[in-house]
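Researcher: I'm comparing several assemblies side by side, and this is the next one on my list. It has 1246 residues spread over two chains. Same procedure as the others: predict the full complex and return the structure.
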Amino acid sequence: MRPDTIALSRGQRLALTAASFALIAVASMALGPLISGSGWWWMCAFIAAGTLFGGAGLRAIRTPASLVPVLELVILVLLLTLLFGGTTSFALIVPTTGTFTEFGELLGGAERTIQQQSVPAIPVPALTFALALGVGVLAVCIDILVQTVRMPALAAAPALVPILIPGFIIEAGAEAPTLVLAAAAYLLLLRVDVRVRRRARIMAGDEGDDAATVISPARVPIASTLGATLGLAGAGLVVAAVLAASTPSISTSLLLGTGNPSTIFGRGVSPFIDLGRDLRRPDPSPAFHYFSPDGERPYFTLLTLDRFEGATWGVTDTAIDGDNTVDAMPRPEGLSSEVRADEHPIDVTIDEVRTTWLPVPYPTTRVDGLRGSWFWEDGSLAVRGIDADTAGQRYQANWLEVDPTPAQLRAADRRVSDEFTRFLALPDDLPQVISDTAAQVTGTAATPYDAAVAIQAFLRSPDFEYSTEAPVEDGYDGGGFDVIAQFLESRAGYCVHFASTMAVLAREVGIPARISVGYTQGSPSQERVGGLQRIEVDSHDLHAWPELYFEGVGWVPFEPTPGRGLVPDYSRPGAGEGAGPPIPQSGSAAPSASGRAAADPGGGITGTGGGLALADSWWLRGGVIALLAAAVLLAPAALRAGQRASRLRRIARGERPADAAWSELTATARDLGVDVGIADTPRAVASRIADREGFAADEAGAALIVLRDAVERERYGPALRTGVPDADLIGALETARAALADDERAVDRIRAVLIPRSLVDRAQAAFSERLSPGT
Amino acid sequence: MRRPSFARVAAWPRLTRRGGALVLMGVVLVSVSLWFDLRDILLLAFVAIAMPAIAALFVSLRPPRLAVYRTFTPSTIAAGTSTWVSLSVKNRSKRTFDGAHWRDRVPDHLTAPPDAVLPAIGPFERMLPSGDDTAHLEYRLRVSRRGVYVVGPLRVGVTDPFALARIDRDAGSARELVVTPRVTPLDAALGTAASVDGVLHGLQRRTHPNSDELIAREYRYGDPLRRVNWAATARRGELMVREEEQRGDPEARILLDTTLSAHQRGSKHEFDDRVHAGFELGIEVAASIGVHLLDLGYQVRCDAVADPARGGIASTSDGEYHMPGGDQGLLEDLARLDSPTRSDAPARRATTGGSSAPARAREARMPGFAVLVEPDEHDTANLVALRPGFEPAVAFVTESTATRVVHALEEADWRVVRVRRPTEIGGAWSGSAVRGRAAVANDRIAATGDARPAPSGTARSNGHDGRADAS
């Protein structure tokens, strides 16, 4: 760990800095698959360049070496202020207290956005700030390793940080070209360092009379060494690629027993809402409230489940498109201009619900007044926040009240266009009862619309009972097809069962279907503001309902759950023949005017797969953190032990053995708190140590004298073999060290092992490196 | 050495600290990758593991072709001084040679410069050499002890371009560096002693005109006219010239104790178990005397005390030295003299056997100098036996010489001079001369400390005077 004290010229420092910059820039490229766009990378590169080359400039004007890393951090803060400080900064780059508050908020936002965004993430300011900060800190680390400690090989550790991240988040990990480039950049750094080191050593020469004079050839072509360098690097990369490709993937279950490593760091975003938990809550918590004219009370969609995998319903995890800003949402799929659709503004104020999905009616044309970055998803038009959540939001949504006539719905084409075939997907091993029921219920239906109406009517028939207990008691809670089959047998369940059953039956008969999860229309309060009624929505209004797709009309909601919500006009049997305004229909089992279930226990629609994995991941995460903490805590002791081992090796091998023994003795003394300096002569140190009680014993004192004489003879005597054989030295060293340790309390001894003070001295020596002599 | 060849592998390729760290990092990454099923990281993990391995393969499969030329300036040095070791490393391959470190291999107790960067060397220039295919390395090597040191070969550590693996190779070959014993300049004082009597007089006698019979030869074209020996010409009837060749050089003999027969084996010296200080001192004394005598024009014969008849102290020479070049030869032989060690002492003893020195009853007695460190009775007997052939006979003894040996020598009329430190050599020499001229009673052992020599200038002039007197 001895620092290389050869002073480097400015040009050499600059070359090292450039290579370091290439390394960190390429390494941060590895984050590419996680973040969309490339602007963030340019910004990271800018930050890294500013920090690294700023450090090079500081070194060029001979700033003390120990100050340079600190000043680099200052440069980093200035650059961050320039880019993110906004109006809080003073003279653009000087941060104020306001700036740091801003930074704190950005970091908080970054934490949220990392939890909430799925890949590729939108580079919102908070995320870019976190990236810039991270890259800047890594750049400073690399600079310390390369320039101050002069061990560029270790620069791999900071550079690996951004390279490791993608592997934990997405399956594919970092892209192969980036990895190859990163390896190449690392090798470039090593090569530059080798050249710089050689050049510096030749330039510096050796001091003293007996130093060798080296006369180099005047000109040497570097082309052939370039060839060797490239050849070697290429061979290494090719061999590594072959090895990596041919290594079998060891299943993690063999090693860990449990599956998905992604749960450790939360790969992707879990969008599911545990409906049952919120419905089970005895006292509903207010979710949000909105103001709306009478009669305009839509359902609020949080998210849409479109994937039925047999056991559960799920969301197709799509990446957020950065262009899908909520101020311009598209016209919903399939809605033709012939269908009547009125736009209604609605003011929503969030009370207590806290999620990254924004409750908005489907379809919505625009949302205003949101804080943070929110984007809509293609198809479902669900709105997601990536660096903020719903807490405290207050926004205005323009929603479309789509009011198709039965005739329009009947006219819908029976054929389903390709893009909607995925909404027809059903598992192959569908229970027989489902297809039988579908055939039986929709046997007479002439059109898909009639079939849908028939299914809804079938489910709303008195045969089916709204019950939150029955599924739990009989053990068929959830949304899988086994559950649906049993539900069709026992005919009791709640919204999850009704919605998933209707969706599956609709798919069975060829109607694209999906399930929306959200809130029912809520219950109106007495408060009225300017002709608008205030409507409260609470956690008991959570609901799930099927939406069916009709060509020309789009996604149309149905309400198969008896006693909940509103049954749309168009979906009543015989609708169209007798037109009338939509009336809230209270089923017989409806416990309240809003059609809300009093208690709805049991699991959610999406099954209970997550809990176990989470627990495992906690074990794992805790283990990893404990291991890391132990490694960090034990690192000094390990370093010290390694140092001792290498000195003992030197003694055994006879490379200045007495010197090694003496260094070890002084280091031990230093660890134990004896005040011995680097500059003290062996005699001074020995006399100081000999005063201790442990050395009153003859044996210890003699050992000390043996060591002292040996080192003096070796350092100052003629360059001959020392008189004391190596074994004697080791014995004397052990005796003396034992005598040193004997005097201390056990606590101090342990502290000496865990926090060796001699290492601090060495580190200080490393950081007070010599300055370049004006070259 | 002259032929460029692939540098030999001196050790297995090994990973540098950086390479080791990379492998470690790769292993950790592989386990992380498999544990969390991160297939993407696997690529980087294998890069980290494969690169050092490939680098090790790379350095072991691409041996550099280097030619190394090594010179010492000066080529022979005295102990305690330094020489410049120059290495020129030529690249003989068509590729640039880069990424290497060099370290010269020297014997253990010498210090060569530490591992240093070998600059990049351009490809071999068959045509129009501009010197870009050569790097010059130069360092100063200090040697404190006499001896013969094998310097080299050059150890070249080659690393791959990323410094992940390294292999050590030996380039070029080793070369001997002869480090001669320190020579203390001595006063010419001894020239005044009766030492020169026999042989130098003989020389003068021979060069006397009366002996022209022996030294005249017929005239050959090109001989200067002044060298014509008219007397011989008249006698022979043809033109004769003087042959001014020294036929009878003055001769002196040095007997060196090389075996330390009486040395107490097993006595432990704390520092220099392998270097016997007294022995080194003896060699310095012998070297100083030998060079001094050679400078004075003597032919010097150097033998071991234990076996004076064997001839020479080194196996390569017969022990006869004369100018020019004799001083270098003597010093080199002394440099090559190994310290007598425990193991080979009995062997030496065996070779020397019980041969007693033949008493050379010579018509002319030569100066004899014995340098004794730890002689035993056998050596003493040899010296006593040789005494009649020497005039003067001076024995330089070190502290470790046993008192009874000293007494025995004094009984046999050897003049005994004590030398304790290298700095006393000059004084001891002058002291012996002073005593020789003053003819002090033999029973007193000369202590060099109190027998301070006269200032060297006067001593030297005395010497000249004395010599003039003698002649």
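Model: For your comparison table: Residues 188-199+249-470 of chain B form a domain with the Rossmann fold fold (CATH 3.40.50).
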